[in-house]
Amino acid sequence: MARQTNKLKARPRHLYRWKWIGIGPQARPLTGESIGHSKTDIIVELSKQNIHVRRIQRKGGSYSSGSIKSADIMIFSRQMATMINAGIPLLQALYVVAESLKKPSMVALLKQLADDVASGTSFSDALGHHPQHFDRLFIHLVQAGEQAGTLSSMLERNAVYKEKVESLKARVKKALWYPFTVLITGWGITLLLLIKVVPQFESMFQSFGAELPALTQLIVNLSVLAQQLWLPLLGILMTTVLVFKWLVRRSSALAYRLDKAILQLPVIGSIVNKAAVARFARTLATTFASGVPLVDGLDTAAGSSGNKVYEQAVRQVRQDVATGQQLHFSMRMTNCFPTLTVQMVSIGEEAGALATMLHRVAEYYEEEVDNAVDALTSLMEPLIIIILGILVGGIVVSMYLPIFDLGTVI
């Protein structure tokens, strides 16, 4: 019976946007929109602001919290840290932050958190009801802050951590998507020329009644194939990508092999490798500095590495540390972490400054990733020009070759 009650409490209530017309202080007419569970909730909330509601109606459907991004959680963490640091009680801070947000899904989430806290649930337990938005690190930090009376500093630390991680993710995504974008752009322009431009020249060539040069004939044949097959090939390509993504999500073994293959790629593999080490070090440093036990911190860091190879390595490290092994020795045994990282962790353990050393490791590899992405971008820019020049220039030259030959004959 108790379990059923807890499930009912954890079940989110739907929120709706309400458009209202009312009278404010000094009999001023007011209109506006608010987000709440029901008409009664909106009327009560507005009455606290000395607004008498005359007409209210629901606008649109219900809002869920499914569209919440990591950046939204980061902003929420920083705002809550500011409120609590200013001496505002937790429950009131949740209501104030909820009113300041414009994203309905975040308002819905904060309303659920406020309801849980108002019913006597601790803040960390309330966050635990939403694991899809609040990771274990966030919950651990809040829990440690509640116990030590340093909730504002822990929330601020979490916001800084998320800023660093999101910045690192953005740089890695840039490194991964840049070459892919170059290939797609070149392929798209070439396909457009073959389908739309080359056929115009082909009709003109037929009027010449002469044999076309080999390069021109090749391009014309490719154009005919492109016009016939581009749509089926595009469908096959999109289906293949979707099926592959589905298989990666369903199969942990395939996801591991994919991440391992990415780590072995030239240039890109080095960037992903350094980014995984930086995220691991940043997460472990944050948890350890916040008083979270090392074994629990390793469990949290495993899931934050962003790579299945490193995730498996960190879980192996956790098992070794749980049996009494030193952290740096366990890391060395995985044959996964760079020598510099292992040496700095060893120094940190010996000096009793593990969190400091892990922070330095994270900063070092974050800077390495930043430099590598900048170098890759600088390298790819001239490469884009060369690739597009070869593709577009080759097609243009092949189209004008028959015209040059005709001019020679004349």
UniProtKB/TrEMBL annotation:
Pfam families per UniProt: T2SSF
Coiled-coil regions listed in the entry: none
Record's GO cellular component terms: plasma membrane
The keyword Membrane is annotated on this UniProt entry: yes
GO biological process terms held by the UniProt record: protein secretion by the type II secretion system
Principal subcellular localisation of the protein: membrane
Record-linked PROSITE patterns: T2SP_F (PS00874)
Protein name: Type II secretion system F family protein
Species, as recorded: Vreelandella populi
Lineage: Bacteria, Pseudomonadati, Pseudomonadota, Gammaproteobacteria, Oceanospirillales
